[in-house]
Amino acid sequence: MRFPRLILLAACLLAAAPALAAGLFGGPPEPGQMPSRFIRVEGVDAGLLFTQSGDGTQRLRLADVTCILGRVRFGVGFVEMVGVSLGADEPFAGMLLPAHIGYTLWSRPARTGFLYGVAPDVYVEAGGGWFALHTPFDGPAARLALCCDVDYYGFGVGFDAGALTSPPKYSYSSREYALYACLRLRVLTFGIGF
Fold it and tell me: Domain extents for the chain?
C-alpha cells in the first residue's frame, strides 16, 4: 500500500519542481523585465572591522565574483585579508581564494547602462577558506554574517555583522571566534544580468 503513495508523492514533487526551482534559483527574464540572475563582480571591498572586545582592525577583499541565481548566491574571491594583532612583523593574515554562499532576503537591482547596480541588497552569507600567513595551510577560518550593500555606477558601501572564526594561533582577542561589525567601501562593483 505504501509503494503507490510514494510514487504519487514523487510524481507531485517532480511536477512542482520547475516552479519551486524558478522561485529559488530564478529564470531567464521576460522581455522588458528585470533579470533574477546576476554575475556580481567586485574589484575592491575595504572596510573597518570591530570585534566584541572593542578592537578595531581592517578588512580587505580583492577580486570577488558572485553568482546570484534568484535568491541563492555563491562565489569566490582572490584573497580576503584581516588585520589582526600578530605583532609588528606579522600585521595581517587572511584567506586565499575565500568561498562564500548565501541567501538573498531583499534586493532591488537597478540598471546602470548595460550593467546593474543594487540599492539595496540584503542577504545572509557564510564564507570560509584557509587562513594563510606564511603558508596557505595555517588552518581553516569561517565567517557568518547578515549583510547590506548598496552600489551604483561601480561604487558602493556595505555593512555586515556576524561572527568570525580563526585558527588558534591567530585568535581574535585570545579567542578562536569573535562577534564583529564591519563598515565597507566598495569600488569597481557591478552586476551582469541574464
Answer: 29-193
How far lies 192's CA from each of 33, 41, 69, in Å?
14, 8, 12
CATH topology for the 29-193 domain: Porin (2.40.160)
Question: Structure pTM?
Answer: 0.78
Asked if 118 contacts 151 with a C-beta cutoff of 8 angstroms, the reply is: yes
Amino acid at residue number 108: R
What cell was used for 101? 554562499
CB 58 within 8 A of CB 82: yes
Decide if 99 contacts 80 (C-beta within 8 A). Answer: no
Convert the pLDDT of each residue in 30-75 to its tens digit. 666 788 899 999 999 999 988 877 767 888 999 999 999 999 999 9
Q: Distance between CA atoms of 18 and 34, rounded to whole angstroms?
A: 20
